[in-house]
Each structure stands twice: as C-alpha cells, then as structure tokens.
Amino acid sequence: MIHDRPTPNLFMVGAPKCGTTSMYHYLRQHPQIFFPFDDAKLGRAKEPHYFCPELEIGERDSIKDEGEYLDLYRGSEYAKWRGDASVLYLFSEQAASRIKQFCPDARILIMLRPPVEQMHSRHAHCIRHITAREDITDFYEAIAAGEDRRNGLRIPPHTTIPKCLDYFSVARFAPQVERYFDTFGRDAMKVVLLEDMVAAPKETYRQLLAFLQVDDSFAPEFRAYNEAPAQTPLERAVHRVYRNSAVKRVVQAIAPYQARRRVLNGIRVLARGRKQRLPRDEELYQRCRPDVERLARLLERDLSHWL
Q1: Per-residue pLDDT tens over the stretch 168-196
Q2: Which residue, of 54, 83, 186, 198, has the greatest Cβ tally within 10 A?
Q3: pLDDT by residue (tens digit) across 57-91?
Q4: Domain 10-212 bears CATH identifier 3.90.1150.10
Q5: Residue 202: per-residue pLDDT
Q6: Is the CB of residue 134 less than 8 Å from the CB of residue 126?
Q7: What digits encode the pLDDT tens for the residues 100-156?
Q8: DSSP string spanning 162-230?
C-alpha cells in the first residue's frame, strides 16, 4: 500500500500487561524511533487499534478512520521507525494480515510474560480502568465467565472492549505468536520476555535496538510505567510520604532512579511477602500447560518455570 505521508512500520502488537507501556516509553525516546504521544489522548495515540476492527473496540479507545490514523505520524519523516503500540493486535485474528497488507516490510515486536501472571495483572487492571469497566471483581469468577463472554453474555455495561474480557483466551499466546510468525517470518519479529527486561533491561533493550538496526548505544532511564497501585498499608504509607514535594526533592537529589526502585521493590517484598503460588491457580496452570509448551517450542526456549 502506497501513501504520500509518513506511515508506521514498527508494530508492538502486545501482549497487554507484559511491559508494553514501559517499552513504548523507552523506544519513543530513541532519536531514530517515533511513537505518537499525546498527553490528552494518550490511549488512542499510544494504542490506536486501527487494524483489529473485528474486536469492536469502542471509538473512544480506537481509531477507525485511515486519515485520522495517519495523522498520528505527521512530522515523523525523520524517523527510521514509526511505531504503533496497540497491545490487542496480538489477540486479534485479523490484525496480522491487515498490517502485512498495509506495510509488507513491517517489523513486529511482541512482549510476553507467564500467562497466569498476565491474567491476574490484566484482571486487576480492568477492574480499575474505565475502558474495561470490569464488573466481576473475583478473579476466578471472571476467568470462568470467559465462555459466556465469548458468546456475548455477562459483558459489563459500557465497556469499550467487549470481546477482550475473555482473559484466558487473551493469554493463549502460542497460536497468536504463531500467526505472526506465519505472516511476517521470524526475521521480521522480535519476542521479548518481561522477565528478561526486568532482570537485564540495558542488555535486552540493546538487543532490541540491534534488531532494529539503529544506534544501540542509546539508553533511556529504565523507569517502570503503568504499574499496579500500592496494595498494602506499608506501601501506601511510603507513597504518601514520597508525595510530599520537599521529601521528593531530597530523595531524588541523593538517590538515582534505579536505587529508588530497588528500595521500593524491597518494601513491596517486605509488605507482601515473597510471591507464592496460589492454590486456586493450580487448575489455571494446568490449563495453560499445553499452550506454554507449544510456545516454548516456537521460541526455542525453556519456559518450564512459567508452569
């Protein structure tokens, strides 16, 4: 498809709650990479979801018109890569082929994490996020509602993502990744695991820049974005103290961001205890096993620790 103005050629297609927001911010800071950004309309600028019409995402949270979509890329002629970070493209059955038709030479970035973790995180996000308006607050009941929701039942009133609240289906990553492999080929794709980004952010980011063939010496500040809110009294107390502008100035002056992160992570471990496997999750782990094993074969990587 030929256009007379700048168009996206880099697609971060998902999965949701797998570090995509942080990666979006890291990549958009690179001088050779452009991602749309609009504080007032960050949802649609960051995640236009233009190529997945079958998901019927509401107009407030997606862009339907091609002209409006391409307007996001005005002024990006300088960039080698122009990105679209729509995290439901991975789940969509149509997005891969539509993107391929739109931009045959596109590069695809996928971010993943263990599916049970992803489901927990996404359900918590949907409860507090106005886009989803999730009305089933019990996680396991929401998972069990998936079959009904696939048939259009038990959909929360006023949600803008009615077809994306089947948490288990969204977290079945293997067939989704395979669809992109089949459409674009492995050489055009980069799959990043959230655990690698957490354990070695600089090296993982450098490898991604090398994949994109841009200056891989550039390094942003690896801040965490779109985190879950404080959950325990201790965490909330720390956040209240830190919101004091005088305290914040002093702390920022004496401790770099990564040091502050290590302290915060330590407080979370202290407050919540070490993350333990929940007994009620055992059935979910077993349901996920065939998909995780299939994904491990696709990625040629041991993912047994996801189970």
Answers
A1: 999 999 999 999 999 999 999 999 999 99
A2: 83
A3: 998 889 999 999 999 999 999 999 999 999 999 99
A4: no
A5: 94
A6: yes
A7: 999 999 999 999 999 999 999 999 999 988 777 899 999 999 999 999 999 999 999
A8: GGG--HHHHT-HHHHHHHHHHHH-GGGEEEEEHHHHHH-HHHHHHHHHHHHTS-TT--------SPPPP
Contact at 8 Å (CB) between 57 and 67?
no
pLDDT at 271: 47
Identity of the amino acid at 116: V
Separation between Cα atoms, residue 193 and residue 18, nearest integer Å: 8
- Tell me how far apart the alpha carbons of residues 86 and 194 are, in angstroms, rounded to a whole number: 17
180, 90 contact by CB (below 8 A): yes
Q: Where are the alpha helices (DSSP H) in 15-156?
A: 20-28, 42-46, 66-71, 95-102, 115-128, 139-144, 146-150
- Report whether 14 contacts 85 (CB < 8 A): no
Measured over all CA atoms, what is the biggest interatomic distance in the chain, rounded to whole angstroms?
Answer: 56
> Per-residue pLDDT for 295 more than 90?
yes
161-197 burial, b at 16+ Cβ within 10 Å, e below that, comes to bbbbbbbbbbbbbbebbebbbebbeeebbbbbbbbeb
Output the average pLDDT for the chain: 87
* DSSP-based three-state secondary structure for 7: coil
Q: Hey, what are 242's tokens?
A: 């830190």
Helix axes 95-102, 173-184, angle to 10 degrees: 20
pTM across the whole model: 0.85
> How far apart (Å, rounded) are the C-alpha atoms in residues 101 and 81?
18
| Domain segments of the chain as ranges | 10-212, 233-272
The residue among 202 and 274 whose pLDDT is bigger is 202
Q: How far apart are CA 150 and CA 132, in angstroms?
A: 15
